[in-house]
Amino acid sequence: MEKILVTGSLGQIGSELVDKLRGMYGNDNVIASDLMKKDEQIELIEAGPFELLDVMDGEAILNVVKKHGIKRIVNLAALLSAVGEKNPHKCWQINMGGVVNCLEIAKDHGLSVFTPSSIACFGPTTPKDKTPQETVQRPNTMYGVTKVAGELICDYYHSKFGVDTRGVRFPGLISYKTLPGGGTTDYAVEIYYEAIKKGSYDSFIDANTYMDMMYMPDAIDAIVHLMNADPSRLRYRNAYNITAMSINPLDIEKSIKKFMPDFKLGFNVDPVREAIAQSWPNSLDDSPAREDWDFSPKYDLDKMTEDMLKNLMIKLDIK
Fold it and tell me: Chain-centre distance of CA 224, in angstroms?
């Protein structure tokens, strides 16, 4: 069995992906790693191999690869959009330094690399509705800049050196298991927590601002599916548009009220994050992913809302 290294494994995506991969391939075959340990993630850390790892340290990554006989890297370590705007230089160093280090090791040691991109790779001049797979990419955030550069450098290592690189452009991701880490779409997670805890929420995104979203189980399935896809079918390497729903805060409010009729939504718009959201597409065209590797999300908004609220009631121990 090929061993897999997951960087940034204690983050929102990584923590659930590691569980999924260990369930599929065995605990010992999936090596989790992150910059530091987190007490709330102790179960994941102790369930299988774990390495403290800074993705900006190429030698350290190589040592882990050799130690465990790694054949596949899933590079999730990154600073997200809102956090990245507060420290753009650090965002560039982490997001691009980690990708390049993983690609160099993959080139020299015959590894494959999965690196996700994001809707942040698009910008104000990108077509807003049903954004095509191939279109204008002129982001106005450093996070977005790193995602475009990441797509290009992965394509380069594939065409120049034959590295098996793959990736998707994630929309906003919603999960009850792990809190997000400073992204513009975080409101779509916070709203469910606050609905359970307080029965109300003030959104930092404007009422009519649409963004693509996806429930985390669909995102995890997409990673696994693309990683295992027949390479002869892949027209693109980095990265495929994927989405499940295009929604705004009012849509989520309406969905929550189907299960919690007294829920109240207010607004306290953050101009920084709202400006970022306005620069992104309203909706993506994900038909190439559906055609090339049979991408097909299972959750719509109401099905996601029902599952989120049910599991958050358990997680937050609210009767």
Answer: 13
Residue 38: its pLDDT value, please? Answer: 85
Mean pLDDT of 132-144: 96
Catalytic residue, from 143, 176, 187, 299: name it.
Answer: 143
User: b/e per residue, 137-149, with b = 16+ CB within 10 A?
Assistant: bebebbbbbbbbb
Q: What percent of the residues of the chain are helix, what percent strand, and what percent coil, each to the nearest 5?
A: 50, 15, 35
The fold of the 3-171+214-241 domain, in CATH, is: Rossmann fold (3.40.50)
DSSP three-state, residue 72? strand
At residue 21, the pLDDT reads 97
193 is catalytic: no
Q: Which of 187, 219, 191, 220 is nearest to 312 (CA)?
A: 191
Residue 31: CB atoms within 10 Å: 25
- Its pTM stands at 0.94
**Where do the domains of the chain lie?**
3-171+214-241, 173-213+245-281+298-315
Question: 76-90, 196-210, 254-268: which has the minimum mean pLDDT?
Answer: 76-90
